[in-house]
Amino acid sequence: MKKRIVFALLIIFVVTFSVFQRPAESKRVERSGKRTLSEVKPQSVQAAAFSVSEKASSFAPASPEDGQSNKKTGDEKARQVPNNLPFRKQSESAISDIEKNFAQTSAEPMPAPTLSFDGLSSNDNAAAYGFRLVPPDTFGDVGPNHYVQAVNALLRVYDKNGNALTPPFKPASLFAPLGTPCSTRNDGDPVVLYDPLADRWLISQFCTQFPPFRQMFAVSKTGDPTGKYYIYEFVMPNFKLNDYSKIGVWSDGYYMTTDQFSGGDYAGTGVFAFDKAKMLAGDAAAGYIYFDLASPSTIRLGGLLPADLDGVNPPPVGAPNVFVGYAATEYGDAGDAIRLFDFHADFRNPANSGFTERAESPLPTAPFDPTSSDGRGDIFQSAPGEPLDSQSDRLMYRAAYRNFGTHESLVFNQTVRTSPSGGGYRAGVRVYELRKSNGAFGIREQATVGNNSESRWMGSSAQDYQGNIALGYSFGNEEKKPSVFYSGKLATEPVGIFRRETALIIGTGVQTSAGSRWGDYSAMSVDPSDDCTFWITNEYYTAESGLQSPFGWLTRIGKFKFAECSPAPRAVITGVVSNASNNQPVEGALVTANAVFSRNTNANGDFGSFLFEPNTYILTASAKGFRSRTYTVSVTNGQSLIQNFALEPTAVLENVGTKFIAESCAVNDSAEPGETVTINIALRNTGARNTANLTAVLQPTGGVNNPSQPQNYGILPTGGNSVLRPFTFTAAPSLACGDPVLLTFALQDGAENLGTVAVTLNTGIKRTALQENFDSATAPNLPDGWTTGATGAQRNWTTATAQKQSAPNSAFSPNPLQVGVNELVSPVFQIVSPNAEISFRNWYELETTFLRNKFYDGSVLEIKIGNDDWRDIEAAGGVFISGGYDGVLDGCCQNPLVGRRAWSGKSGVNQTSEFIFSKAKLPASAAGNNVRLRWRVGTDVGTSRQGQYIDDLIVSDGAICSCRNIQSNRAPFDFDGDGKTDLVVYRPNDNAGAADFLIQNSFNNSSQNAAWGSVGDVAVSSDYDGDGKTDFSVFRPATRTWFILNSSNFSITTVNFGLADDVLTPVDYDGDGKSDIAVFRPSTGVWYRLNSSDGQLFARQFGTNGDLP
After folding, report:
1. Dihedrals φ, ψ of 183, to 5°?
2. Which pairs count as long-range contacts for 62-69, CB under 8 Å and 24+ apart, including other chains?
3. Contact partners, residue 249, CB within 8 Å, separation at least 6
4. Residue 586: which region, alpha, beta or left (left: phi > 0; alpha: psi -120 to 50)?
5. 174 φ, ψ to 5°?
6. Average pLDDT over residues 747-753
7. CA 196, CA 76: separation in Å to the nearest integer?
8. Chain segment 990-1015, per-residue pLDDT in tens
């Protein structure tokens, strides 16, 4: 793919049960009709910074930084940014397709623009920065009341009559409150989108100041783009440049694609899903889910676009976002085709997210040729204009999605060659409409708008609510100066026929000096108010602007609609949310419709307006401290409905602390399996109403046995101090040491149910196999048991004080400028469990390039298990959980660790190194072995850096439960789970309602009766479900059936096992804390059991005829 060359003036630039088989290597596999890209795995990253912007309407006109001047003359000089290598290279043996799928032009012209005005310009940049930026990368979107335009590197808000409501302002004006280095940057690649489901505006740009790079997001707090924004800074998950970021609005997220580059080398596509719900709520914990499509089978998937929603009819519930790409024979692909992918984002459990190719993909297309002339100069202008870049190597932004109810549609376009290969180059715009019905997409429209006389490029396309398509583009040739044109067609017009094109603006100038860079995209969007009117923006020159500066581009904004399109049926719902107790407005309430549309209330409680298709909607208003309220309303075309919400205030209780005050066994602030403990639970009221008589009841679930009586918290005022109450319970003996215990408290305030509060405790205390903070030794000595060595120019590890997480020392390795390697070796320690983890604080500055695309000096972590050889922690089976390796060490310069994955460059995500938290699971094979660890720093012939520091190292190894009450020591016939045998008799009978088991519980001397069994049955009561309580159970000799009533969940288990004459012997044979169904057969002396741990049958001869168990 031809990558963008972006220029700037002076020294500034815009970077613009079948589960048992496992394949030996990553392959694309078939699953549920989709091709799963099994080698790509999701990563999740939380926002690095969050704040709230000032109102955009308060921004003063953008002005240059100190030392710059307002230049509007043509004397500037441009500096060329080195070109990235294209990821798509034409196959030498491929034959270029000849375009034959030209759109036929009807006699019917496209409608004339009803509004056309100039947008942002190169002069605006000169006034704002003191220099000009090229290309503009013109983009914009329209909302109910505004049009917002973005260029490199300015934004401006207009009303829908073309009047400016803000001055041109820099993106950094929005992001300034973040207070980060990137918050002051205006690096470009701007995107602005309107979200019709949430009535919000989204603005984004990237930051390329230093790796790892950033993506900046601003989400308006309301539907007013001149107001305040929630602002976020997201750090990219690796050191790749997030170039050409393209974003799509969807029901559950904001989806994004990037073309990734490592230095100047293409490094695959990145696909992202940002957590829309949290971003709309201004939640600082908002994050994204990411897939790196850089595997062998996905590396060629460049230039993907996410679907971007148009209209007010959302996608089907739960539908994944669809990503669009293409294949071409000129690039060595098997055929010309459109490829489609589903991105399912699970923000609650990101590991469940998936990126899959759809079953119908690829969709074969009519032949096309996406290649252009060598170099970037493809589109010829009239003299003295330079050749312009056609951007023919990618799909053009956007992939416009619309749900028509009867079908779903995707409309997008790309630039293709319309002239024979080898001759003079001409470009046309291939526009596609895909329709999805019966679960699969198919191609409805695929026509190329163009000819051999002029070039058409820089396309953008969209579809109104009737299915009419509009396509905008740049237009020109050697005689006709670059202009902005548009074409289109009605949904009722035949496939392949487009209307006669119309000009938005005729250019009178040419671009003479920008290295062929005309821009990366333009924009076509649809007005949500009538869902008929198309808004278009693109760039052009006039003779005057070209004379004023060789970089004097202008932009144009306009609108038009098909006369045949009448406004879409619409209904409006407005209202306010108030406090039912005092009629005061509730600010920040969330109002949803059908769980997809959303609005938030302002300080007056006003949630604005919902713009709907006539239908029935379920409206719900909710706010913290209030009970939610739901109405079902039906609206008709043209109706304006006022739906107010009066929310009842309620108390909201939160646990703000727990404290152990009594433990029946080990006093270690831990509830061990089988142990009875008492803990204080602190509750605080953060709601909107005081409690009057709050009661908390600990539930007998989640590993809690024998909970104590309810506790009364009484009156808890809202925002007041917390109140403590004690609760006693027994941790279920069936819990494994280290398992969590989930305490659930049911809350009741008089007649009002306040829900539940949950508290999680871990059983046992963590076992520490190794712990070291390097503070016991006097620098530069190492602590006892730690050793070091070095070869070549490298030097030994020492303790040092220059960088440390905890004073006074850390372990330190230098990073010299010659070849060598050293090692820091830990003492021997023993690992008991297969779940051991190592964590340590890790600071390093090791030689790499500025872009961190080549790693020269690096550090590795190795492990020695028993008598095995030393192996890298990953190669031995360990897995980094956080703070893992940065990449592979380069082979250029004799590093002894060449080819190894390693830490290199600077630790952390900022410009200067910082301590990061490195954590890894040790290999499961370490369990039961003596283990040692070693850190090695390898250096090459190059330059020196500071080195590496490690501190506060801990190897945790499962948990220790010093008083665990295992099954063999439990009291038999303990029906109430208090660890004591209860008095019980079995009286089988067949009388209706009569008890078979009669029990006196030892816990509180209460009586318990149970009807379970019949005459002739034999009692075999034991703890089969491992919850610490004996289960009612009988054996029926006549049918050889065991009937078990599980006390944990009252489910019934029936098993046919044994013979009528067998001796019944149920106990825990396999040690999993559950009794196994078992018998002894006196006639043969054979024991038979059904293991509860794995369901396997076990038989063993032990005894002779006549023996008894």
Report:
1. -70, -15
2. 62/124, 62/127, 62/128, 62/129, 62/154, 62/167, 62/168, 62/169, 62/170, 62/173, 63/127, 63/128, 64/128, 64/129, 64/130, 65/129, 65/130, 68/129, 68/130, 68/131, 69/130
3. 193, 194, 195, 196, 197, 202, 308, 309
4. beta
5. -70, -45
6. 96
7. 42
8. 998 899 999 998 877 888 899 999 99
